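User: Some background: our group keeps a shared notebook of sequences we're curious about, and every so often someone picks one and asks for a predicted structure to add to the entry. Today it's my turn. The entry only has the sequence so far, pasted here. Could you supply the structure so I can complete it?
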Amino acid sequence: MFAHLGPEALLVSIALLMALVCPQLGDRWFSRIERGLSNIARRRGLAILVCGLSALGLRLALLPWLPVPLPYINDEFSFLLAGDTFAHGRFANPPHPMWVHFETFHVIFHPTYASMYPPLQGLVLAAGQVLARSPFWGVWFSVGIMCAVFCWMLQAWLPPSWAFLGGMLPMLRFGVLSYWDNGYWGGALAATGGALVLGALPRIMRHQRVRDAILMSFGVAMLANTRPYEGMMLSVAVGFMLVVWAIRKRPAAGPLLCRVALPMLLILAVAGAATGYYFWRVTGSPTKMPQQVNRDTYAIAKYFYWQSAYPEPEYHHKAIRDFYQGAELRQFNQAHAFKGVVRQLAIKSGMAWVFYITPMFTIPLVFFAGVLRHRRTRWLWIAGAVGIASSALVVFFNLHYIAPVVSVLIAAIVHGMRNLRLCAFEGKRSGQFLVRAVVVLCILMVPIQTHLLATAPAPGSWAAIGPERAAIANRLNCLPGPQLVLVRYGSNHDPMLDWVYNGADIDGQKVVWARDMGEAQNAELLRYFNDRSVWLLDADDLPPRLVQYPVPRLHNTAQSLVGKQQTSSDRRVEP
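Assistant: Of course. Here's the predicted structure to add to the notebook entry:
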């Protein structure tokens, strides 16, 4: 996460020095390029299209170095389960009779077998799986849409050229060159929903058009089905702003009701009914989220600082207990002391700075403060502040949790660049050079970031699970007949490094992953899967060690074939 900071800080330092010494460098070339880009930016529809297609094209161009990503984070497998479930034409899967052997993180097993997360990311992954045979292509397309919508949103708040720049910056930074486009656990969809809501806000205030009301409604629905809590807080803030505006400006009641209120109510009613129907199919109640079922079943820690912990539930597996009673509960308990809260807020701020701002955009943000006096954008900064403050109230944090207001952060960076461009040093246009340098450095950082993302992960690290698991799965897929892998961990196992995940149709999978529960409890699973070759995986070995499980009667064809190739009871299949 921090590896790019050194090269980036060095490049920024060189740019600062050059801004003081030779700010006219390349002025003629930059002026020509800026005129050409301004011509594109003035054609608003074209600018939006260019932002989206550029993000899609850049990721395609990087495929030789960054191939289709392999999942390795617990959350990713849960989202992939949702995508596979939708791809099978189901909202949820029936509980498996051997479910206790397959228990894993962020998944519910009763009353149905399903992901605990909101459905939109899963639907996008399912679209990629069905239409292009890989859920990755759903992620790829969603990032392109995000960059296009960012440009559209910024056009409502900024001059066209700066809005165009703001739509391109995510492509060069966290949009394409991060887990948002190289993983499966989201970010882009929530950011798109937030940008739709914030881009429609000033347009509704100015024009009261049906299309803007529809787009805002779609944005609210996207937020509700990606980041429900953060999305709700942002939506409530924007709704309050619309009410204040209506009271102060007193627009014509007829157009406001017919063109804004009615379309929004109709779309939100349909979206709410669809979401409630999904909850009902998964949890049995239209008002109970799958995430609530999962937390009630497994969690001890709660989400907000002022809440008390759940009583400890009964766990069937040490790895799951270690996660909920260990790392998660420790973080929750630390949050009940003042020092712990301050420490967590500092860590959250540092993570956000490293991911979204970095040394590249720190200087432009220094020049942002003066923008707060501008009445035209005041609503935007208030919305961003509400979103960030809402996220700060939650104990746990990840970088995409603030995705609904990332477009506000991009707007702040671009506003800072506008102010920086006007700055001069000893009569020289040093600020203009720095703004140009920021864009150039973003481009220069692309191969550096690509190299860092493409670097093979260290054995035993979180990221190493992806290629290790895929290698073992590929080996087993090449064997005749179905396979069963019992995963065993060491006594000091890190619960974040988990291997036990399955798709929507467990019984139909070529390779099924289950937890080693000891000989006696494993017996019932072996009786259920009596036609499968059985393997034992020591996942914490370096490299992970796969051996045949000592089943009493080995009359399976695949085991016989493997037995001819191996000569001891410690037969291995290594990645």
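Suggested note for the entry: The chain has two domains: 5-67+118-298+337-450, 465-565. The first strand starts at residue 107 and ends at 108.
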